[in-house]
Amino acid sequence: MSPVLPREAPTAVPGFRLWPQALDSAAQVALLAEVRSGLEAAPLYRPVTPGGRPFSVRMSNFGPLGWVSDRGGYRYQPAHPETGAPWPPIPPRLLALWDALTGWPSPPDACLVNLYQGEARMGLHQDRDERDLTAPVLSVSLGDTAVFRIGPAEGGPTRTVRLASGDACALTGPARLARHGVDRLLAGSSRLLPGGGRVNLTLRVAG
Ligand SMILES: O=C(O)CCC(=O)C(=O)O
Ligand SMILES: [Fe+2]
């Protein structure tokens, strides 16, 4: 990670924290290589919603627990649903970033990997499958810029925030249960991933 503490930018949503360029371009390249090597052990797959609709993103996980969705619902589990193998470890660079940015006393035990390509998006939702809903959720973006949408937990007006390659953001405190999603990617905004697309890494204390 970067040697200095990333600069935090103000946001209009209390508890939604944003650190533009938390990872400089060298750190982004290094992290992407670590992600690719983890994905060799835990290949991306396309989950379905509990209603049976395929996600437009492909997913995998790192860490003791991984978030999965299927006909049985949403949950965390210790093994890849297709290979049955344990998830590979969370890259140390991400654990260090979690400590530096969140200051949370315990490490994350789950890192969801989302790959967005083409028209992939993610509908508005809350992250609420974790045991302790006071622990922050930290998200790191690599590749094409995402048009991220965020609004209050109870519903109501949302705002959009652009998340570029290397940006980190967190749902904390009053924004922990904020509704959020990804409307679309800005195609061609980054050259980090050959062929375009975006990798999002979401660190959580799940279990
Ligand atoms: O891709 C993103 O920036 C958000 C991902 C997300 O909200 C999730 O996986 O729960
Ligand atoms: Fe989410």
Automatic annotation (TrEMBL):
Residues that, per the record, bind Fe cation: 125, 127, 180
Gene3D superfamilies noted in UniProt: Alpha-ketoglutarate-dependent dioxygenase AlkB-like (2.60.120.590)
Source domain of life: Bacteria
Keyword Iron: yes
Keyword Iron: yes
InterPro entries in the cross-refs: Alkb (IPR004574), AlkB-like (IPR027450), AlkB-like_sf (IPR037151), Oxoglu/Fe-dep_dioxygenase_dom (IPR005123)
Biological process per Gene Ontology, one example term: oxidative RNA demethylation
Cofactor(s) listed in the protein's UniProt record: Fe(2+)
Keywords: Dioxygenase, Iron, Metal-binding, Oxidoreductase
GO molecular function annotation: broad specificity oxidative DNA demethylase activity; ferrous iron binding; oxidative RNA demethylase activity
PROSITE patterns assigned: FE2OG_OXY (PS51471)
One cellular-component annotation, GO: cytoplasm
All copies of domain Fe2OG dioxygenase, residue ranges: 107-207
Cofactor note: Binds 1 Fe(2+) ion per subunit.
Protein name as catalogued: Alpha-ketoglutarate-dependent dioxygenase AlkB
Organism of this sequence: Brevundimonas naejangsanensis
Lineage, broadest ranks: Bacteria, Pseudomonadati, Pseudomonadota, Alphaproteobacteria, Caulobacterales
